[in-house]
Amino acid sequence: MSKAATSLPRTIGAHAILLTYTVIALFPVIVIVVNSFKSRAAIFRSPLTPPTAETFDLIGYTTVMAQGDFIQYFQNSLTVTVASLFLVLLFGAMAAFALSEYRFKGNTMMGLYLALGIMIPIRLGTVAILQLMVASGLVNTLTALVLVYTAQGLPLAVFILSEFMKQVSDDLKNAGRIDGLSEYRIFFRLVLPLVRPAMATVAVFTMIPIWNDLWFPLILAPGESTKTVTLGAQVFIGQFVTNWNAVLAALSLAILPVLVLYLFFSRQLIRGITSGAVK
Amino acid sequence: MGSLKIENVKKSFGPVEVLKGIDLDVKDGEFVVFVGPSGCGKSTLLRIIAGLEDASSGDVLIDGQRVTNAPPAKRGIAMVFQTYALYPHLNVRDNMALGLKQAGTPAAEIDQRIGASSAMLSLEPYLKRRPAELSGGQRQRVAIGRALVREPKLFLFDEPLSNLDAALRVNTRLEIAQLHNRLKATMVYVTHDQVEAMTLADRIVVLNAGRVEQVGAPMELYNKPANLFVAGFIGSPKMNFIDGARLGETAKTVGVRPEHIAVSDTSGAWKGTVIHAEHLGADTNVFLETEKAGLVTIRLFGEYQTGPGATLYATPDAARTYRFDADGRALG
Ligand SMILES: Nc1ncnc2c1ncn2[C@@H]1O[C@H](COP(=O)(O)OP(=O)(O)OP(=O)(O)O)[C@@H](O)[C@H]1O
Ligand SMILES: [Mg+2]
C-alpha cells in the first residue's frame, strides 16, 4: 500500500469507528452467549459479568438437549436452509443468465416480473400458500418450507445475479460457443466462476432470513418431526414462565451453523460487496 | 477449401436496421478486411458469419455449404476477439485444447497441433501459465494460437489489435501477415484502423451504415474511390473536398488528396495563408486557408519550414483529382 494513502491519524480514526461499530454489533450476541453459560439467578443478578466458577452452569444446554429433539431440529433447519439456498442459487443464476444473455420478446417485462418479489413480502400470500400446501398434502413436510423459501429468495437472487452476469464478457461466451461448448457448459464453467462473489453475496442474504424464520415453520410445518431450531426454541418461552437458560442456550447453538456457513462464504462476500454491485 | 459467400444478409435489432443487404464473395485463401466507421455493422456482420448472431434474412455459405442454420462450432471457423476472450480458469495449453477436445480430436493429434502452433507463435514457454499471468501481447498470441489449432476453413478477426499498444500492434500485425502467407488460409478481419486494412488486406470491404460502399484491393480504393465516402475514408490525412462551383467545375465536388498537392512560395493555382503546420519528421502537414478553394490540407514529404501566417501557393496534381456528382458518386 502506498504511504500517501495511510496517514496515522486517519488510520486510528477509521479503526476507532470500525471497532465501536463492531462492539455495538457484537454486544447482544456476546451477552446471549455469555449468559447461556450461567445459572438462572446469575443471569438476572448481573447479566453483564462473565460466568465465574460459582455462577457457571450448563443447565441451559442440558435442558435443551433433554427437552424435545434438538438435534433433529438442527437437522431440519440445516436441511431446509441448505436445500433452499442451493435451489435459489441454481435457479436464480440460471434465470439471471437467460435474462442477461438471450434476447427474446418480453425479456425486460420478465425481468421486472421476477424482481417484483423483492418489494412484495411473500408473507402476504400465507393463506393461499397454506391452502396450496394442504391441497398438495405438503403440510408438515420440509419440502413445503424449501419450496416457500426458494420462492422467497429467487427475486433478489435473479436481480443481483443478472446485473453481474451482464458484465461477463460477451467475447468469452462467444469463444466458448465457437469451441463447441454447450450453453450449459458456458453457464457452469465460464460464467458461474466469474460471478462467484455475487453468488456468495446472494447466498448470505438468502440464508439468514431462512434460518431465522419463525413464521412459515409455525404455519406450514409445526409438527415435531419437522420443527426448525427457531420454532423449537419457542417451547421455552411460555406465557407466564420463560426458561431463560434454555432459550439462551438454544439461541447460542443456533448461531453456530450460520456462523460456519458465513465464514464459508465471507471471503467471496467481501469481494462481492467491494466490487460495488450491491450498493 | 475456405471460400465465403454472403448473400443479401440483412440484420435488424428491433426497429433498427443495422445491415441493409450485404453481398460478398471471398475467394479461398484471400485476406479480406472490413473497415468502416464505428457502429457501421462490421462486428455484426462478422458475428453473423461466425453464427453467433442470426441474420434477419439472407444466407451465409462457407466452402460452398449453406451454414445459415449451423451452430458456430460446426462452421469450420475460428475467431480471435478484441478482448482476447481466453478462458480464465484454464492454462494456455488447455485454452488451445478445449475446442479440439470438444470436437473429439484424438489426444495425440491435439498434442501435435498445439506443438506446431505454439512453435509458430513462440508460445512454448507459457503453455503452463494461466491467462492472468500473461501480458496483453502474449494473451493475443494465445488467442491466435487457439484459432490456429482448430485448422479452420475460415479465420475471423474482430479488431484483434485494438487493445495492444502501438509498438506491439505493429509486431502483431506483421505476425498475422506472415501467418496468412504461410497458411494460405482465408481470413476475414475487422478493423477501423485503415493502416491495418491497407497493410494486411488482399481486398478491403468498406462498410458504411450497414451497406457496402466499395470492395477492392487497397490501391484500387486509394486510386479509384467509387464515392465520396470511400474517398474520404481511405487515406490519411483525409482527402480535401472542394465545392466544384468555386473552381468553376461542373462536378458537384472535387477531391484532392493532401499528398497530391504541390506548394511553392512564389506561384501556383491557389494562393493561401498557413493556419497551422504539423511537423512529423517524415512528413509535414500544412493547413492552408486558400482564397479559391477554402481550407485545404497538404501533405509534404520530409521536413518543410513554414508556420502560421506564411503565404504559400498550392497546385493540385490535375491527373490525380477526383470528381463527384451530387449523389457523391465518382465521375469518369
Ligand atoms: N445486441 C444489440 N442490440 C441492439 N443494437 C445492437 C446490438 N449489437 C449491435 N447493435 C447496433 O448495431 C450497430 C452496429 O454494431 P457493430 O457492433 O456491428 O458496430 P461496429 O461496426 O463493429 O462498430 P465498432 O467499430 O465500434 O466495433 C450499432 O449501431 C449498434 O448500436
Ligand atoms: Mg466492432
Automatic annotation (TrEMBL), chain A:
Subcellular locations according to the entry: Cell membrane
Gene3D superfamilies: MetI-like (1.10.3720.10)
Membrane topology of this protein: Multi-pass membrane protein
Matching PROSITE patterns: ABC_TM1
Transmembrane feature ranges: 12-34, 78-99, 111-134, 146-165, 186-211, 246-265
Pfam family, one: BPD_transp_1
Domain ABC transmembrane type-1: 74-265
Keywords on record: Cell membrane, Membrane, Transmembrane, Transmembrane helix, Transport
Family: Belongs to the binding-protein-dependent transport system permease family.
Protein name per UniProt: Raffinose/stachyose/melibiose transport system permease protein
Organism: Aminobacter niigataensis
From TrEMBL, chain B:
EC number: 3.6.3.-
Annotated InterPro entries: AAA+_ATPase, ABC_transporter-like_ATP-bd, ABC_transporter-like_CS, ABC_transpr_MalK-like, ABC_transpr_MalK/UgpC-like, Mo/tungstate-bd_C_term_dom, NA-bd_OB-fold, P-loop_NTPase
Enzyme class, broadest EC rank: hydrolase
Domain (ABC transporter): residue spans on this chain: 4-234
Keywords: ATP-binding, Hydrolase, Nucleotide-binding, Sugar transport, Transport
Pfam family, one: TOBE_2
Highest taxon in the source lineage: Bacteria
Transmembrane segments: none
Gene Ontology molecular function, alphabetical: ATP binding; hydrolase activity
Signal peptide start and end residues: none
Family according to the record: Belongs to the ABC transporter superfamily.
Protein name per UniProt: Multiple sugar transport system ATP-binding protein
Record lineage: Bacteria, Pseudomonadati, Pseudomonadota, Alphaproteobacteria, Hyphomicrobiales
